[in-house]
Amino acid sequence: MRRIPYTIVFEGQGGAAGFSKGSAKVNLEPGDDADSTTLTYSASAQAGGKLAQIGSRLVDGAARKIAAEFFKRFSAQLEGGSE
What we know:
The chain has one helix and three strands.
């Protein structure tokens, strides 16, 4: 099996709060055994307006937390877990 790359592009408007946009590159590769797949990702984002002025570091931390939770639940679903 070969590596399969995906790109997810996102963008949002928050009115007076500002905007955000970015992308995530996701790769799927064969795992160590025949029944596994390794998923890796990297993401970049930009925020502008009041959101960026007030707390871009807070936004970065929240984005990392949300991504980690997503992949934790995604993995549980693939493994047949109840989360």
